[in-house]
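ARCHIVE CARD
Drawer: 12
Card no.: 0347
Subject: one protein chain, sequence and derived structure
Cross-reference: see card 0346
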Amino acid sequence: MQEEWKRAAAEKAAELVRPGMTVALGSGTTMEEVVRLLAARKVEARFIPSSVRIEGLARSLGLEIAEFSAEPDLAIDGADEVDPSFNMIKGRGGALTREKILARAARRVAIVVDRTKLVRKLGERAPVPVEVLPFSVRFTSHLIEKIGGRPELRMAGGRPYVTDNGNYILDVKFDRISSPRLMEKKLNELPGVVENGIFTGLVDLLIVGHENGADAVTNRRTFLGLFRRLSKL
């Protein structure tokens, strides 16, 4: 059922892309669905992928790939959690640094999720991914513990997971993230941190897939209204 919710949201997001646009593409399973739908629609647009995986999929389906040298018209991406103020946790797909760069560069940002990603407070279910330099991973882990985090080195095949940038990821659990903006800043000030998966002040449009299709959400009021409605289903 969750796959159906993802597809409903992905279909609505794909409709945002118009001929002639330059569109940044995030990473993750929902974005893979968006890429497939974009290829099926055959819109004459140019795409800037945030990861090697998404670039490979986009190329294999015939999408035109563009270099990142100017502001994209639109960025489409997923999220691991989204709160009522449109703060997000991202990075389960490992591309958080490039995703944040593209989101900050884009003229408009659309985030595509299914209903399970909506939360009242960040950190309810998902850890915060933090991309760190391999050189400093132990030292940086210690610093994260000092600000209340519980870091765990992400592994893949018995080895540390390596990002497309050649770095490691610490998945960090916090008992509470009272101020996402402050925590985003605190993490990025730690030596060895390249970027972290708390995204604040970036969302223009949130597309939420659920049992009855997909809704476009643009503010806190409509978020809470949808959250309450979905809680009754």
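Annotation on reverse: The first strand starts at residue 22 and ends at 25. The mean pLDDT is 97.
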